[in-house]
Design a protein that fits this description.
The structure holds 2 protein chains of 2 kinds. Chain A is built from 6 helices and 15 strands. By secondary structure, chain A is an alpha/beta fold. In chain A, helix 4 runs parallel beside helix 5. The two termini of chain B are 22 Å apart. The chains are: A alpha/beta, B alpha/beta. Chains A and B meet through strand 4 of A and helix 1 and strand 5 of B.
């Protein structure tokens, strides 16, 4: 049973102008890629990936809409409700791992890198953002021992362009046993296209509108597969996503209407 | 041994997916039929216009069940046409659940769903968490009678009415539905309930109150089925807390001809329908029965 646990915010870390990490007084042992439902009492409840998965739970949040704006108004000592960690996390295969994270999508990849490096794996992380000041967890990844390659849309750091440009160039030179990606869905769709052509098995962490978070309401079921993002996901294998005509094309809003992804 | 005929529908087994669980998209419904083993699937309740429903949290787990208030979220009947088409690929009867804020909406959406190819309509006059929709029409026999009558004029396929145990007199409501032309009664939907977080002193659900489902609803639903089956001649479908074959058997003994399963998906996964069917068959064999119909209403005598 996933009871709602109401806990204190222990520490808030400003990662970038629009991204903060909230450390909670909740001891967890989660698998990177798993999520929690975060309840702001009296406001709403949303799914968030765990960005710190061992010990005090950490969630790393991009200020985007009303819910995250309210979350950013909280201080250390304030209360949040947590259900979870839940869902299927990433599974590490092989020794040479490649991570591709866009924007706040780096959040679940950072603990994955730390875990893999502790286990003696080799980790290369491609980290992208709109601009240099919005890059997330670059130092954290380097500290853990990962090789970090950077892209920014505006060229203020690393290669000017997208993570997928860096990925395509890298895979001309090198190969990897497994790729893990999280970020905007159109980026992930492109990542899967590139890694497929190089025959690198890839796991992607999806974001969908969640209601129950425990696999019964049906809100987050992926068309073409019947898979529940909250239960069989949020991380999926490339071969699962290839069966879905929804992935990379649209998501469903709270009413269940299809909303097509815009082009970036 | 398990195949049943329900108001003209042929079901390979008597377990049906209850409305409101996994029924928001065709892909989910199809999975419940194909992998889950359900004998029939009931869609999420569909209305005249798109609805986002209530803010989260929409579900809270408690001992022995769930309290939920999704709030009749749905994409509106027009967008649901494509979902029905996918759901039908599951190869089992598809029941379109319909709600409305007035008689006209019920009738219009039911007629549209019939046009999309559903095998039966289930009128949601049981959902308790949106003011003047759903259970609003199921609390008293006059309104229930009028909803069923209005829809009956517009649809020719089998028509079920799903009732609420929150009704003042659920047996009277069932009789009113039968009198108005319903072909079957589903009993029952969730009971009004709530949960409060003691640390923040706030109701947990975004809607503050919700509907209780799961094991803790079972004795109430069972009593409703027992009382209704005694008084109506149309089939009764049991719904409320059915988790195991043993639970389903209790509903058959009370007079139900089929059962709907919802919350148990949480405890036993999507294949709960297959598991419950197997457990029903095991019971029948142990007790020396040849067919599930032989035990329907045994506890009535």
């Amino acid at each position: 049973m996933h009871e709602m646990q109401v806990v204190e915010i222990k520490k808030i870390v400003r990662e970038t102008k629009r991204i903060r990490t909230f450390f909670l007084d909740l001891d967890v042992n989660a698998i990177p890629g798993q999520f929690v439902m975060v309840w702001l009492p009296g406001v709403n409840e949303k799914p968030m990936s765990a960005s710190y998965t061992k010990g005090d739970l950490g969630i790393t949040v991009l200020r985007l809409g009303d819910f995250t704006r309210r979350l950013f108004e909280l201080s250390e000592g304030d209360l949040l409700g947590i259900r979870g960690p839940m869902g299927r996390g990433f599974k590490i295969y092989g020794d040479r791992l490649l991570l591709v994270g866009g924007g706040v999508g780096v959040a679940p990849l950072a603990p994955l890198a730390e875990e893999a490096l502790r286990d003696g794996k080799e980790v290369t992380a491609i980290v992208g953002a709109l601009t240099a000041s919005e890059l997330l967890f670059v130092d954290r990844l380097k500290r853990a021992g990962a090789r970090v390659l950077i892209s920014t849309d505006d060229g203020t750091a690393g290669r000017k362009g997208f993570t997928t440009d860096v990925l395509a160039e890298l895979l001309e030179e090198e190969s990897f046993d497994q790729c893990f990606t999280c970020g905007p869905e159109l980026m992930m769709a492109k990542v899967l296209e590139i890694t497929r052509s190089k025959r690198i098995p890839t796991q992607a962490s999806l974001h969908r509108y969640f209601k129950c978070g425990i696999g019964i309401c049906g809100q987050c079921v992926l068309d073409g597969t019947g898979l529940r993002v909250c239960k069989e996901g949020p991380t999926f294998r490339d071969k699962e996503l290839r069966r879905s005509h929804e992935f990379g094309r649209y998501w469903r809003n709270a009413a269940g209407q299809k909303i097509y992804f815009g082009r970036r | 041994m398990l195949e049943v005929e329900l108001a003209g529908l042929k079901l390979a087994n008597p377990t049906m997916l209850a409305s409101g669980i996994l029924g928001t998209s065709g892909a989910a419904l199809k999975r419940v039929a194909v992998s889950g083993g359900a004998g029939a699937i009931v869609t999420k309740s569909i209305g005249a216009t798109p609805r986002e429903g209530h803010p989260n949290p929409t579900v809270v787990e408690i001992d022995g069940g769930l309290i939920s208030a999704i709030g009749l979220a749905n994409p509106g009947y027009e967008e649901f046409r494509d979902e029905i088409a996918v759901a039908k690929e599951g190869g089992v009867p598809v029941v379109g659940s319909v709600y409305g804020f007035n008689f006209q909406e019920y009738a219009m959406v039911a007629e549209a769903m019939q046009g999309y190819g559903v095998d039966a309509i289930e009128l949601n006059i049981s959902y308790p968490n949106v003011g003047k929709a759903g259970a609003f029409f199921g609390y008293r026999e006059e309104l229930a009678h009028e909803v069923v009558s209005e829809v009956r004029k517009r649809v020719s396929i089998p028509l079920f009415a799903k009732l609420t145990a929150n009704a003042g007199d659920v047996v009277a409501v069932a009789k009113a539905c039968e009198d108005a032309g319903a072909d079957a009664i589903t009993a029952t939907g969730a009971l009004r309930a709530m949960a409060i977080d003691v640390t923040t002193a706030k109701p947990v659900l975004g809607n503050r109150v919700g509907g209780l489902s799961g094991a803790c609803l079972k004795p109430v639903a069972l009593r409703c089925v027992y009382e209704i089956a005694e008084e109506v001649s149309i089939p009764v479908i049991g719904c409320g807390g059915i988790t195991t074959g043993r639970d389903a058997v209790e509903f058959f003994l009370a007079g139900a001809r089929a059962v709907q399963i919802g919350t148990a998906v949480l405890y036993r996964g999507i294949t709960v329908f297959r598991k419950v069917s197997r457990e029903i068959a095991e019971y029948l064999e142990e007790q020396g029965y040849g067919h599930v119909s032989e035990i329907v209403g045994l506890a009535q005598r």
